[in-house]
Amino acid sequence: MALLDIENLGLAMTSFEGETQILHGIDLTIERGEIWGMVGETGSGKSLTGLSVSRLIPSPPGRYTSGAIRFEGQDLLQADEPAMRRLRGRRIGMIFQDPTTNLNPAFRVGTQLVDVALHAGRADPSVLGLAPGASARALKAAAKARAVEMLDHVGITNPAERIRSYPHELSGGMKQRVLIAMAMIGKPDLLIADEPTTALDVSVQAQILRLMHALVHERDIGVLLITHNLGVVAQICTHVAVMFRGRILEKGPVRAVLKHPSHAYTKALLDAVPRAHTKRGELRGLGGIDMEAAE
Amino acid sequence: MLFYFIRRVAMLVPMLLGLSLLLFVVARLLPGDPVGLAAGPNATPELIERLRAEFGLDQSLPMQYWTYLTGLVQGDWGQSVFTRRPVFEDLMTYLPATLELVIAALVIAIVLGIPLGLLTAVYRNGVLDYVTRTVALGGIAMPRFFLGLLLQLGFAAWLGWLPLAGRFPLIGFPPEHVTGFYTVDAVLSGDWEGLRLALAHLAMPAFAMSLSPLATIMRMMRASTIEVLQQDYVLTERALGLSSRLILFKYVLKNAMTSTLTIIGLYVSWLLGGTVLVETVFDWPGLGLYATQAILTQDFMPVIGVTMVIAMIYLVTMLLVDLLYGVFNPKVRYS
Amino acid sequence: MSDLTQTTAVPKRDRSARAENWARAFYRFRQSWLSLIGLAIVVTLIVLAVIAPWIVPHPDHVAGTTNTGFRFQPPSAAAWFGTNELGQDVFSLVLVGARVSLFSAMVVIALAIVIGTLVGAIAGYFGGWIDEILMRFTDLLLTIPSLILAMAVAAALGTGVWNMIIAITVTWWPAYARLVRGEVLVKKQEQFVVASVALGAGWPRILGLHILPNIVSPLVVKASLDMGFAILTVASLGFVGIGVKPPTPEWGTLLSGARAYMPDYWWTAVAPGTAIFLAVLAFNLLGDGLRDVLDPKARR
């Protein structure tokens, strides 16, 4: 059984202009150990696909028009909110783009980390190394210890002290490490990372990608990495899916797709990546591509 | 933090000095003849002259201010020309009644306003939201004194559930004086009947005063909660499985409180100044009635005294609000 | 691959940006039916107040005539809001009372804007010790409970509409001074102001031509939101017995007079009270709408 199997997913959103179809039948299967990069331009529906897996799109305005999202066989589109909540943070972890806005500024990072750990521990005490039916006090103590341990694990020095910091006292890279720790503290089986490195500068980007790569291999989990950066895809992904206007145009092992793109859009996307020998004035955009012809 | 606190307290001193000077000058510059009013229409010029000398009004203005200022520090806040009673003693008699009223109104406004604001933000455009927002619009526009009259009409005259006016039954004995707050004193002395009576008298004036701050706090809280709910970190908290109750009452509440806090601080001054109106309606023996009486007889010293007390309470409240602000928003640095 | 190169066409505009802004603002205002209701009530009130002396059923009552044979008549077709302790038609009194309330509130706001703008603009533009002195003074005034100060000043000046207006204005301008000072400080840093300083324009020209016209919106918003509270303050002074004295009808004074006959002859109080409430509500709704249109960032 696949870890995540998205089949013919259709999503429509209502705005003041009426209902618009956003996703047109997405098909995607992620196995354990696979890192799927999902690329495409802004507004192509990458992020909404990621949010759909965690059922974080409010309805209304969102409405699923077709398909299924099966997580280890269970259809998430049929799951109710309590069932989804048991999965979130515990089985499915999420990381978002901007580390400065994704940590609550009024609370110490430890408070947020411990609350997520407690939530995961309540769903499954073994996550915190406890036997089923552990007392609330034991859970709390274990969650605290685990929070420190996790900060250490994502490479934050002096975690016992850092845990008492407020977000504004940390650098952008450190904040993203904290967010990764929050996403991973429940030992999830699936990690959805939505542009996790876009807001960081290049040297920190590389560190964060390396960290994510290491965590994935250590735990043998599946990852859906949403990005518009083909460089990131080439660096750490095993597979890639190219999205355009709510459809997946092309998908497969990363080498095959990047080396021999079969779709005109993928080619255009690859050509748009600036290279070391790109001369001034040669930078290409994607504007003007005729998708009707491309399809 | 401690240094900041000490500096802020020290800054109150020049503020209060300036305030006392300003009030003193304004009071003396305004036309009006309190001594003439107090002495009555048949007073002889000699009598008025003697009275003026007695109250030090024959001295030069700087001299009068100096006398006032030195007295201020020693607890001698001057004397009423009309009743000849020392102002400071009067203030201490009436202040607890007013504070009890203002605190009760503020408690009602905060205890109802903050949860209502949170809930209407979450269930936006629901029935509760529309009802409370409509009532809030009316609540802000409703004059306190008219609301007080309507309450008297409904609950005292027609339904007979609550006493019409006053702070305690005229024939009853108020609880033994400890703090001057009848409710607190009743609890301290275990006088439950006294507590019931005190609360019954407090209910209508406190509610009449609380409606406007209640409505404003609610609207403020609703707006800032809606803003906070759209923040990225709320999505992250939901995405990692935290319950909506935990998110709302822990993570959102604290963020939404910051802007509401300032409003609450400003309302303390508004409530204290506005007691004049509600105390008139309910014959509540507090600073407001005292000030009105003094103003009508152009009796300077009590008016200056009341204004100084209210300004002091206001300045201290704003200091507390600033300190609390740092609790809700850790980015604020005290330096 | 040349077909992939992006070209950007410059969109043609048939209307100026400013006209478009106004059209959009008007559209947004129309979207909010509460603001429209507020506007409708405000317009009705102003029209009624202007023509009141000619349309009231009993102009003689307004002038002070009494009719003791008709004391305390409950509301009826003959006297819509009933009659008071002197047998006067409450409807006539309340309608004419709108004149005093609206007139004094408008004058208070206008005076407060003039004084506040003057003080605030000077403090903000020149800065330094001028700013320090002016702002310390306004801060002091702001700590004084405004109603008590207004009462004290009004009582000392004696009764009369203008004395009341002066008394309220004394407490009202500091808020405008603060607002204008803050806006001037911001605008002073803007490029177009810095440029005109560099070009050698004098300060009256810079302030009057470049800075003040650009802070009209926040002033209009504050003024419209304040109208309701100014009406409330006028009525409050009347209610505590300071301000306009009978026979000039004024809502707060009418309400205060009605208190004595309260439980039995409730209509004498309900009519002026409701009038105050409606007027304040209408100006608040209008002000909220204007703020959303002119100052969307301050939306709360």
Task: Tell me the layout of helices and strands.
The complex is a heterotrimer of chains A (295), B (335) and C (300).
Chain A: E1 4-15, E2 18-30, E3 35-39, H1 46-53, E4 62-71, E5 74-75, H2 81-87, E6 92-95, H3 99-102, H4 109-123, H5 136-153, H6 159-162, H7 172-184, E7 190-194, H8 202-219, E8 222-226, H9 230-236, E9 239-244, E10 247-253, H10 254-259, H11 264-271, H12 291-294
Parallel strand pairs in A: 3-8, 3-9, 6-7, 7-8
Antiparallel strand pairs in A: 1-2, 1-4, 4-5, 9-10
Helix pairs in contact in A: 4-5, 4-7, 5-7, 7-8
Chain B: H1 2-29, H2 34-39, H3 45-54, H4 61-73, H5 87-122, H6 127-141, H7 144-158, H8 182-188, H9 192-229, H10 232-239, H11 244-282, H12 287-296, H13 300-328
Helix pairs in contact in B: 1-13, 5-6, 5-9, 5-11, 5-13, 6-9, 7-9, 7-11, 8-9, 9-11, 11-12, 11-13, 12-13
Chain C: H1 17-31, H2 33-55, H3 59-63, H4 90-126, H5 128-143, H6 146-157, H7 161-188, H8 191-198, H9 203-211, H10 216-239, H11 251-259, H12 267-294
Shape of chain C, please?
elongated
Helical percentage of chain B: over 70%
Q: Biggest protein-protein interface?
A: B-C, 49 and 45 residues
- How far the N terminus sits from the C terminus of chain B, by CA atoms, comes to 7 Å
Outline the biggest β-sheet of chain C. none
- Per DSSP, the total helix count of chain C is 12
* Overall pLDDT score of chain B: 84
Structural class of chain B: mainly alpha
H/E order of the elements of chain B? HHHHHHHHHHHHH
Oligomer: heterotrimer
Low-confidence stretches of chain B are none
What do you see in this structure?
- The complex is a heterotrimer of chains A (295), B (335) and C (300).
- With 295 residues, chain A is of the alpha/beta class.
- Chain A has a single domain (4-276, 284-288), classed as P-loop containing nucleotide triphosphate hydrolases (Rossmann fold), CATH 3.40.50.
- Helices cover 38% and strands 23% of the residues of chain A.
- In chain A, helix 7 (172-184) packs parallel to helix 8.
- The radius of gyration of chain A is 20 Å and the shape is globular.
- Chain B folds into two domains: 2-73, no CATH class; 91-334, MetI-like (MetI-like fold), CATH 1.10.3720.
- Chain B has 335 residues and is an all-alpha fold.
- The N and C termini of chain B lie close together (7 Å).
- The model of chain B has no long low-confidence stretch (mean pLDDT 84).
- Chain B has helices spanning 2-29, 34-39, 45-54, 61-73, 87-122, 127-141, 144-158, 182-188, 192-229, 232-239, 244-282, 287-296, 300-328.
- Chain C is mainly alpha-helical and 300 residues long.
- Chain C has one domain (42-63, 78-298): MetI-like fold (Orthogonal Bundle), CATH 1.10.3720.10.
- Helix content of chain C is 71%, strand content 0%.
- Chain C contains twelve helices and no strands.
- Mean pLDDT of chain C is 80; it is low at 1-13.
- The chains are: A alpha/beta (295), B mainly alpha (335), C mainly alpha (300).
- Chain A binds chain C through residues 268, 271, 284-290, and chain C through 1, 3-7.
